[in-house]
Amino acid sequence: MNKLLRKIVLAFISLLIALSILFIYYKYAIKNIENNYSSEIMHLYSNETRDKGLRILEQGLENNDILLLGSSDLRIKVEQNPINLFPNNTSNKNIIISGKPRVQSLLNLIKLGALDVNKDSNIGIIVSLQWFMRSKVEKASFNSNFSELQFYEFMENKNISNDLKDKVANRVFSLTNNVANHNATVYTQLDTSHKIFQKTFRPFFNFQKWFLDLQDTYKSSFLLDRYKNKNQAIKNELSWQELDELAESQGEKSVTNNDMFVEDQYYVKELQPNLKDLKNKYEGINLLKSDEFNDLELLLELCTELGVKPFVIIESTNGYFYDYAGINKEQRDSYYDKTRQLVEKYGFNYIDLRDFEYDKYFYFDAMHLGWKGWLYVSKEMSEYFK
């Protein structure tokens, strides 16, 4: 009996020591994130630790940086990408980009609702026409970009109404059911389930949230350690006129072999070999009948509830390409109108880029902003986030 008791005591002491070390390092990691926050981390495209976590994004918002929520558009490597133009002579703020292919309104909504944002937060929201080309959000794409931690934090945010939480939970259930993220699927049903079910699973989800927060904190600290010796953002001292001339020059040198005004190598690799198949490829697509409009409205509703005043960027697309591919100007204008009216309904500031669809060097490829496009967006954001 004494041997058994000794073993139990030793096991308890070992556990206590392990938990103490875990707690001490947890506190160190939080302090490390505060001390080693780097603009290099904020400028990384598609970084899972940052984009699916909370610690680094929260630190950026505490530093009064601009959080720009987007998608594949953020990966375009031109000098006019916002990561290269902030801070500048108009705005002294740095910028955080967050997004990757197939990240759309619902995922951005969950992320924003998980963060500690308010009326003073600097939030930019990109809305892309390509998101509306499917009537339904792709389950596989949603799940590959879904953050369980952010979803739990969103659902526990006391500043979000139960009505909005229910709407989002129903959307998450429809997209995670029978696919992946089974924990999230079960979690969406907690509030409407039997009390016995709630009492059974609530402790598990409390532990899961604690574990995910611990994981996020450690991963974020490790990531920042990798970049702590990198240079911080350097203020862009060029005038907007000088930047415009540079964008014109770089676009002119990069677009020389096609009449769709896309970057040369992109045209050679992606468009030229497929021109026959691309002709009227998207004919028959109805941009106005997409679930994405419902998700976008939920995102705007969330901003209203949290007091956030986002700057909405209604991205246009390459008019030459989409005319060729079968979505004509009239159809695109109908989409822009509907999106614009939705943003105006909630009273948020926005820019509508439809008038630039045929401008040279405004786009890098068939759909993403390029030299003059990103420059224009960066300038407008700088004016808004002075």
Topology at a glance:
Layout: H1 2-36, H2 39-42, H3 48-51, H4 55-62, E1 66-69, E2 95-98, H5 105-114, E3 122-127, H6 139-145, H7 148-155, H8 162-176, H9 182-187, H10 195-227, H11 240-254, H12 264-271, H13 275-278, H14 292-306, E4 311-314, H15 319-325, H16 329-345, E5 349-352, H17 371-384
Parallel strand pairs: 1-2, 1-3, 3-4, 4-5
Helix pairs in contact: 1-10, 5-7, 5-14, 11-17
Describe it.
There is one protein chain. With 386 residues, the protein is mainly α. Helices cover 54% and strands 6% of the residues. The protein has helices at 2-36, 39-42, 48-51, 55-62, 105-114, 139-145, 148-155, 162-176, 182-187, 195-227, 240-254, 264-271, 275-278, 292-306, 319-325, 329-345, 371-384, and strands spanning 66-69, 95-98, 122-127, 311-314, 349-352. A five-stranded parallel β-sheet has the order 2-1-3-4-5, with helices on both faces. Helix 1 (2-36) crosses helix 10 (195-227) and helix 11 (240-254) packs antiparallel against helix 17 (371-384). The model has no long low-confidence stretch (mean pLDDT 92).
